[in-house]
């Protein structure tokens, strides 16, 4: 057991009863433990720490009912709708562009046809043409030419950005590439294929805009955006508990730009559990190509280069350590940044991050409590059984033993046992061991003592017994040595300390969803710098928390541009599509929950009966 798991004596001291030992097939009944003390704060599935020793029993009950009502309402709301409702739709409406400000691709010969009959204002002759002059990226100086008078007028094909010298078309081109997960090479390839320019933007120009036009202003806007997200979270917690101060439950997980442990860039993000809002995030990089390829200290030009250089290395941590380092940064600054404490963390089985937080003592006397992601815990069963088959000296796999299909099925049954009893650790333990004894039973040695009783039991043998029917033959009849080898795995994965951390059936789905958004904007297969990932992170956080419409407006304004009305229109379409999909998933989830409840009301039901 991890050192972070509280001892049995500590659990009893805090008002939490210990869970009974691992049941055996001969156990006839297991008494349900008292998982909640007289104070609501010790409920392991709770995320609100109520100072209930100041409250009467009636007030305690009312506070718990209020908290559960808010949690149930949030749980029944699709995650996307939950975030959109929590965040204000548009706190500062921005003026969008008009029809006169759109860009239009026009072939140059079209201008010649339009102007061929137009008179020159100087000599009144016809034959005016438009020719291209100086080019800066995608911006071109268009020159009106008279065959007799020469150049009589000129104008740039694009205005310059608000309060800046850069051309709007170049900034919008960079923003467009960023929003579809492409970079400078893609700009060149796209505009060359469109026969507009053999090189849309020089790579130095592109990088300069990333640093100055996007990164700096976006970082400033993100501070207020994170503060707005934190305010929305506080409002939800105050709805759960009028005496709420600062302790919240968060989901934390790290992600890397490259797969494996070779990535030079890692990202850590803190997501509040109930609302799904990202409260803070950080990008770490242990490499700077500029430092590697630039002048060395002994070179004459080193001093001038160093003054201009922006180093893109901000940590010495190796790839595997980045998740821990990011967590320490984010948790340590939570009080100064949001006046919040991330006192409950939902994370995967990797204890390195949690152990580091405990060792660092980030909140002084206030401990950080870890709760397990149920999806990751479920995966442990499959991984453990596969390792058992691969590493055992005995033939545990193959026909009549632990096949791949049977391991997948047992993994699903383990997950269902946890989810269907997510508020009762003892019931979880019983259900897990019931599945073990059921699957390892044979015609000669049946062990169904832990299986649910009744005619509606998922256990065919208990159902037949209740209906007065002959016992059916066992499907698997696993050899005794296979069952013996499996038992330690089931005992380890049904330990009370582990199941206690699974109460509430929390998952890291929010983190997985956010990671997919982030890496869609900065694909893992293409090269990226710290600055490029930081700008992608800003865009991803805005999209994830508040939708594409809000993200488009915020990023445009930070880049010194008026938000494009066509871009806003497209963003609204994407948000509507996202909302529609979320509502369909939520409706399907509600219907599935209602069906399961109906089955439980009429029979001793368990999903995936076997």
Strand order of the largest sheet: 6-5-4-7-8
- The secondary-structure class comes to alpha/beta
Mean pLDDT: 84
Q: What fraction strand?
A: 5-15%
Oligomer: single chain
Number of strands: 8
Overall 3D form: elongated
Number of helices: 22
Protein name: Mutator-like transposase domain-containing protein
Pfam families: Mutator
Region (Disordered): 1-20, 580-610
Organism: Amblyomma sculptum
What does this structure look like?
There is one protein chain. This protein is an alpha/beta fold. Among the domains are: 223-373 and 506-565, Ribonuclease H-like superfamily/Ribonuclease H (Nucleotidyltransferase, domain 5); 374-504, no CATH class. Helix content is 48%, strand content 10%. The chain contains 22 helices and eight strands. The protein has helices spanning 8-13, 57-76, 79-86, 108-115, 168-179, 184-193, 203-240, 289-293, 302-308, 319-332, 334-338, 352-360, 374-391, 404-419, 425-439, 460-466, 480-492, 496-500, 509-521, 530-546, 548-558, 565-602; strands at 129-136, 139-146, 150-156, 247-256, 265-272, 278-285, 341-347, 369-372. It has a five-stranded mixed β-sheet with strand order 6-5-4-7-8, with helices on both faces. Strand 5 (265-272) and strand 6 (278-285) form a beta hairpin. Helix 7 packs parallel to helix 20 (530-546), helix 13 (374-391) runs antiparallel to helix 14 (404-419) and helix 14 runs antiparallel to helix 15. The chain is elongated. Mean pLDDT is 84; it is low at 1-47 and 602-609. Residues 580-593 have a biased composition (Basic and acidic residues). This is Mutator-like transposase domain-containing protein. Residues 1-10 have a biased composition (Polar residues). Residues 121-459 form the Mutator-like transposase domain.
């Amino acid at each position: 057991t991890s050192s972070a798991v509280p001892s049995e004596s500590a659990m009893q001291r805090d008002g939490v009863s210990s869970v009974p030992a691992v049941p055996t097939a001969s156990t006839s009944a297991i008494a349900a433990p008292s998982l909640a003390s007289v104070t609501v704060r010790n409920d392991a599935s709770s995320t609100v720490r109520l100072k209930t020793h100041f409250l009467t029993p009636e007030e305690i009950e009312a506070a718990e009912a209020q908290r559960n009502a808010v949690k149930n309402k949030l749980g029944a709301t699709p995650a996307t709708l939950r975030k959109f409702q929590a965040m204000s739709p548009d706190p500062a409406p921005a003026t969008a562009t008009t029809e006169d400000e759109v860009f239009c691709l026009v072939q140059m010969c079209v201008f010649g046809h339009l102007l061929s009959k137009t008179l020159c204002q100087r000599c009144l002759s016809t034959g005016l043409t438009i020719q291209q002059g100086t080019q800066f990226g995608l911006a071109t100086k268009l020159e009106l030419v008279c065959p007799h008078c020469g150049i009589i007028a000129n104008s740039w094909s694009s205005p310059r950005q608000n309060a800046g010298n850069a051309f709007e078309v170049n900034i919008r081109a960079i923003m467009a590439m960023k929003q579809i997960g492409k970079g400078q090479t893609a700009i060149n390839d796209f505009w060359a294929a469109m026969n507009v320019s053999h090189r849309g933007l020089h790579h130095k120009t592109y990088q300069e805009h990333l640093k100055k036009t996007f990164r700096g202003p976006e970082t400033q806007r993100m501070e207020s955006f994170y503060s707005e997200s934190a305010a929305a979270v506080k409002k939800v917690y105050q709805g759960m508990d009028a005496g709420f101060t600062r302790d919240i439950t968060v989901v934390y997980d790290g992600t890397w730009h490259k797969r494996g442990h070779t990535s030079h860039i890692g990202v850590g993000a803190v997501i509040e559990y109930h609302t799904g809002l990202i409260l803070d995030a950080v990008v770490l990089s242990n490499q700077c190509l500029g430092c590697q390829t630039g002048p060395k200290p002994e070179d004459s030009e080193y001093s001038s280069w160093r003054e201009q250089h922006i180093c893109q290395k901000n940590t010495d941590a190796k790839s595997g350590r980045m998740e821990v380092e990011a967590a320490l940064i984010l948790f340590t600054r939570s009080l100064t940044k949001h006046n919040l404490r991330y006192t409950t963390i939902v994370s995967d089985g990797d204890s390195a991050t949690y152990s580091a937080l405990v060792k660092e003592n980030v909140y002084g006397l206030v401990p950080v409590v870890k709760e397990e992601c149920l999806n990751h815990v479920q995966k442990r069963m499959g991984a453990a059984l596969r390792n058992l088959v691969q590493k055992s000296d005995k033939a545990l796999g193959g026909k009549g033993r632990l096949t791949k299909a049977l391991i997948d099925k047992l993994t699903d049954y383990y997950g269902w046992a946890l989810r269907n009893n997510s508020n009762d650790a003892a019931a979880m333990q019983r259900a897990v061991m019931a599945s073990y004894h059921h699957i390892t039973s044979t015609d000669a040695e049946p062990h169904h003592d832990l299986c649910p009783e009744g005619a509606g039991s998922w256990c065919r043998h208990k159902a037949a017994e209740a209906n007065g029917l002959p016992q059916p033959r066992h499907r698997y009849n696993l050899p005794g040595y296979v069952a013996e080898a499996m038992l330690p795995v089931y005992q380890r994965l049904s330990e009370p300390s582990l199941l206690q951390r699974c109460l509430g059936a929390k998952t890291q789905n929010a983190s997985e969803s956010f990671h997919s958004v982030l890496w869609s904007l900065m694909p893992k297969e293409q090269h990226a710098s710290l600055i490029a990932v930081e700008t992608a992170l800003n865009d991803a956080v805005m999209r994830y928390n508040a939708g594409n419409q809000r993200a488009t407006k915020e990023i445009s304004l930070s880049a010194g541009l008026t938000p494009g009305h066509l871009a806003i229109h497209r963003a609204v379409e994407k948000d509507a599509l996202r909302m529609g999909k979320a509502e369909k998933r939520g409706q399907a989830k509600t219907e599935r929950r209602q069906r399961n409840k109906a089955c439980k009301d009429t029979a001793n039901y368990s999903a995936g009966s076997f």
